[in-house]
Amino acid sequence: MASGDDEFEQLFDAVYPQLCRFLDHLLGGRGADEDIAQEAFLRLHRLGAGRPPAGEARYWLFGVARNLALNELGRRRTRERWRVRVAGLFGLRAPNPEECLATDERRRMIRAWLGALPEHQRAALLLREQAGMSYREIARVLDVSEAKVKVDIFRARSALRAKWRHMEGADDVSVHRENLPAR
Q1: Which of 86, 100, 137, 160 could form a Cys-Cys staple with 133, CB 3.0–4.6 A?
Q2: Residues 123, 26: contact at Cβ < 8 Å?
Q3: Tens-place pLDDT, residues 123-182
Q4: 153 with 121: CB under 8 angstroms?
């Protein structure tokens, strides 16, 4: 095996799991993460040896994967708009909330909260928390300043923390209501 192939395998083994986790959260866990990660690696392989430079490949992969994920999100939105239109034309009923509840409620809520964040905040936070990148590395992947990365991560964490506190407060209220005597 050539040393270039060995380097590519090592890069794949080191980055692929992180890239899949990043994409899974960026896409809201709908299963396209592995396909997109593989497409990013395929594009890197097609570039050939030395492009991008060895130290840049990880950042390049995350940047390409992010762009592919954004394209996928756009396609999903378009498909959903058409699905709603078709359902309206044929009088199909949308599933009710009870049918949609997942067994793992907290995971669903956190994914929803992540999905509600602006894309640039979500991407920066996931690169930091899931991929373990430094602010400088994230800035390179997203092609923004380190200061913007820090602000985006701070705002994303603050928004998630506020939603968590609100949810905990709502749970406390329901617990207290259940303990009140009947009138």
Answers
A1: 137
A2: yes
A3: 999 999 888 899 999 999 999 999 999 999 999 999 999 998 887 776 554 444 344 344
A4: yes
Cis peptide before 181 (omega within 30 of 0): no
Rounded-to-integer distance, Cα 141 and Cα 58, Å: 9
Are 61 and 119 within one domain? no
Side-chain-side CA neighbours of residue 91 (13 Å): 0
| Distance, CA of 48 to CA of 2 (rounded, Å) | 13
CA 153 to the chain's CA centroid = 14
Encode pLDDT of 51-103 as tens digits.
787 678 899 999 999 999 988 888 888 877 777 776 666 665 555 555 545 44
Taking CA atoms, 31 is separated from 27, 39, 85, 128, 169, in Å, by: 8, 14, 24, 22, 33
128 & 61 share domain: no
Domain-ending residue, one of 94, 118, 145: 94
